[in-house]
Amino acid sequence: MEYLYILQQAIVWIITLFWLYQVLISICSLVKLKDKPLLINKEHKFMTIIPAHNEESVIGNLIESLNKQNYPRELYDIYVIADNCTDRTAEIATNLGAIVYKRNDEEGHTKGHALQWFLSKKIKENANYDAFCVFDADNIVDRDFLKNMNKKLCQGEEVVQGYRDIKNPTDSWIASGYAIFYWMMNRFYHLARYNLGLSPLINGTGFMVKFDVIKPDGWQTCTLTEDIEFSLQRIIAGKKLGWSTDAIVYDEQPVGFKQSWSQRSRWTVGHIQCMSKYTKGLIKSVKENKTLVTFDGLLYIVGSIPMFITTLILLLINAIMYMGKGMTRLALIQNYLMYIIPTFLLPIITGIIIMKLDKKPIKPMIKGLLCYPLFLGSWLVINFKCLFKRETNWEKIEHVRDIKINEVI
User: Fold this and answer.
1) Residue 117 CB partners (closer than 8 Å, separation 6+)
2) Phi and psi (nearest 5°) for 268?
3) Nearby residues of 98 by Cβ (< 8 Å), 6 or more positions away
4) How confident is the model at residue 107 (pLDDT cuts 50, 70, 90)?
5) pTM, whole model, 2 decimals?
């Protein structure tokens, strides 16, 4: 029992220090820093890239929003990768002025493979672009997106994540859960780290990459979470990613639990793949570079699944100590409540805080706020399930709303 107690206290300190670190970092999102100076004054040329698989119901709204950018139309082209499409995606995109590349490859059926295939062609062509932006087909884009990303290029940024907002936050408690989660990530993770000089992460869609960055080796990702993988590759190389609060992209989220379960399972498996593939590289980078940027990147990759497993071990130790008479029933209940109460109350409180800070309307989101602990709790169940059963099949998220850019702005 003495050894179990020592182990229990050690784990408690590890978990406490980890979350204290995250809280201190998050507080830095409240500090408004002076904008970086422009290193050059230039309007760059962009590729906007849309990997799409059977997206005829939404692709037109995205292209429409890109056609209406507050940026010289001759300085950006819209590319659609019609990836194994069997519907009218390519036809609709062509009619709206996009340049369509058709890809048929059932073996590599992920966004990462599609980007790798397309960008390799553009590198071989030595295409005349300064940077590219990547969007999901169900996105719609704020009219100043390219203008604000161009500003970041002029400030010397090479890889920049834009603000990922949600276009259907009140459609269901599931959609609300995604919205609150991304709003918190935008401010408390990405902005906070950018303010501190640490590195945000690429967040799936609405990001910009300087074309020269990938010219030597192409886009090289192989996991189910190509965004996290690309981010970790940059961090291991000692490079920081950038952040733009003003480059806004609106994303559609699943409204049903079954679709959400499938999507988040895929993300968790992708995260486990990245953890397996890049943890050793991150540790080596921490030793060689000795920077907080690489250390923070290492904490990210070990701070989800490993921290979840650590918490499970702590709960198991508490149960063993109780059964072995090393802990009273009251102490066991108190220990469990220490984790259960924050799990249910803190997400609601944090959600209200983030909506107040970002001026999001709270009233339409009340149901989502009350159900947010359930949303996060189900993610813990997904994490546990993926430790033993790792589904790697990509499943299309069905779109149920036809939302245009003028309906969210």
Assistant:
1) 81, 103, 105, 108
2) -65, -40
3) 50, 63, 78, 79, 80
4) confident
5) 0.91
